[in-house]
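Field log, afternoon session.

UNIT: design team B
ACTIVITY: writing a sequence onto a fixed backbone
BACKBONE:
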């Protein structure tokens, strides 16, 4: 193993993560569509209503959406950073493991708050061209949150 003395914490982190990966296979595999491995969501806050990333014959377009709050439509930001990326990996992995298009998100969405609302409201479109074929896929996740007891009682 390389000598880690003199490395900054930022430089040390990938070395330690690499050593951990080399120790053995993971407990369970995670899955992500090959397109999203090549072209991902924004890494940092992106000001604007749409984001496009292209790599060769693959392209991803994300458009910010709006959510109904019960009185009016509220504009949402574009999803960005690690949390939405990890959620997409989790949703993809669960869909592969359960062989279902529906993935439960549990009864509490508080931890997701702003970024998960942005992810739920956005529209993702994937474009692919390979072997002379061109394809556009609307990759919109259809997510609904369970109703709270208060909302259910108010009905």
């Amino acid at each position: 193993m390389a000598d880690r003395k003199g490395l900054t914490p930022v430089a040390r982190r990938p070395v330690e993560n690499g050593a951990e990966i080399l120790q053995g296979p993971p407990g369970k595999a995670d899955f992500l569509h090959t397109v999203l491995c090549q072209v991902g969501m924004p890494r940092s806050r992106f000001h604007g209503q749409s984001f496009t990333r292209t790599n060769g014959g693959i392209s991803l377009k994300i458009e910010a959406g709006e959510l109904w709050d019960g009185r009016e439509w509220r504009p949402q930001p574009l999803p960005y950073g690690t949390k939405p990326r990890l959620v997409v990996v989790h949703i993809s992995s669960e869909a592969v493991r359960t062989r279902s298009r529906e993935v439960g998100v549990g009864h509490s969405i508080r931890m997701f708050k702003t970024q998960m609302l942005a992810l739920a409201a956005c529209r993702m479109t994937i474009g692919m061209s390979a072997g002379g074929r061109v394809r556009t896929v609307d990759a919109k996740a259809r997510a609904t949150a369970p109703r709270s007891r208060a909302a259910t009682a108010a009905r």
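LOG NOTE: Strands lie at 50-55, 58-63, 66-68, 73-75, 123-130, 133-138.
NEXT ACTIVITY: expression trials, pending approval
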